[in-house]
């Protein structure tokens, strides 16, 4: 056996013993070497591949999606390109590929692809991220005020992860954002995460619920006041001035009157504010994140949301799914809240019982995550030294509401002959349950339902008089 034969055998041994996949083709695209690591990655054997053209085995490959074909065509190397695909055994594979042209006397004679399989590393990374989501606690700044970041947005539901994905992209932008989500879904958490993930993170983040303040006061709060503009008025900056350089989060933006919405629009267009009663324009640099708990398109049709303001705010749109749409996230959220209240209340609770978890999954969460958090807090206060929360730890008025079958979703597909009547029945039931939850306290029930006290009183009179 000559030296050349020995070197050739050594080369084959080396290629088959390394962890990286090696795939070498000649200038026509036929495979001349295919090592064991690439067999494992792609789910094919050397006998199936060697001597065959790439397109015989991979007919869908093109220059756009195959690094080997690209390099054979261009003669230029490609470094560290990530690729994700299903291999021939149906496994999800993720690799990092470097593909190099092979020249002999200046002539392109082939190409070699070196593939590093990072599938296991990628899977482990995703598992670690999921564990971090479960274990992470709300971050507090030096003043003790909670600042939420993307790590605190807990869930694995596809729609929820898509909302997080869009929010992360929004954090890299300077454009306005409009968030839609039911009451209690965490709209402010998303808004904070966008702000604290952006270049404005060291500037103010200010929140204002536009439905919580009477219209006559809200204008002065937002735009500021000038001394003498009305009895007792002082020179005071509004929230736009206070948030200069940072972010202003306007929750329930649609609750403002059309006239006040027009003034918000003017600030967005002109980048200056004029205080109530003032004559001086003050330039401001404020990013607006707005939110609504009702479908924006319906609000526009009903005249509650100005179309021009909607288009100005809706540059980036984020829709947060309700808790009823992400039931698979309940175990993660329950575990998170148990850990939070273990710290706050000095408890040592590990989990909820399987019976209670099943009840959670069957329950209609009108108040979404906020309602779930209240349920867990109520139960944790009744735990003495037990490690598992059961139905016996739920306050009686909560257990009665929670453990009964949902009356809102009926299996009969022919149920809804009268949609308005059916929706009225659902609303009446929700109001009745919430009033029971708070022992007929209208103010607390209105706050829980995120509607005004006057609105709730009107509905009570409408449904129960």
Largest sheet: 5 strands, antiparallel
Q: Which radius of gyration do the C-alpha atoms yield?
A: 30 Å
Please list the strands of the largest sheet in the order they lie side by side.
Answer: 2-1-5-4-3
Look at the structure and name the CATH superfamily of the largest domain.
Answer: P-loop containing nucleotide triphosphate hydrolases
**Shape call:** extended
Low-confidence stretches: 128-140, 405-411
Strands, count: 18
- The whole-number mean of residue pLDDT values reads 83
Fraction of residues in helices? Answer: 40-55%
CATH architecture of the largest domain: 3-Layer(aba) Sandwich
Q: How many structural domains can be distinguished in the coordinates? A: 4
Beta percentage is 15-25%
CA-to-CA gap between the ends? 104 Å
Q: Decide which structural class fits the backbone.
A: alpha/beta
Question: What is the fold-level CATH name, i.e. the topology of the largest domain?
Answer: Rossmann fold
In CATH's first tier, which class of the largest domain applies? Alpha Beta
Written overview of the protein:
The protein is of the alpha/beta class. The protein has four domains: 3-120, Beta-Lactamase, CATH 3.30.450.20; 148-321, P-loop containing nucleotide triphosphate hydrolases (Rossmann fold), CATH 3.40.50.300; 325-406, Orthogonal Bundle (Helicase, Ruva Protein, domain 3), CATH 1.10.8; 419-464, Arc Repressor Mutant, subunit A. It has 20 helices and 18 strands. The protein has helices at 3-17, 36-42, 46-49, 54-57, 67-74, 119-135, 158-171, 187-196, 215-223, 239-242, 258-270, 296-301, 307-313, 330-345, 354-362, 368-382, 396-402, 419-437, 442-449, 453-464; strands at 21-26, 31-34, 78-86, 92-104, 107-117, 139-140, 146-147, 177-180, 205-209, 224-225, 236-237, 247-251, 272-274, 281-283, 287-292, 316-319, 351-352, 388-389. It has a five-stranded antiparallel β-sheet. Strands 9-12-15-8-16 form a five-stranded parallel β-sheet. β1 and β2 form a beta hairpin. α7 runs parallel beside α8, α18 crosses α19 and α19 packs across α20 (453-464). The model is unreliable at 128-140 and 405-411 (pLDDT under 50).
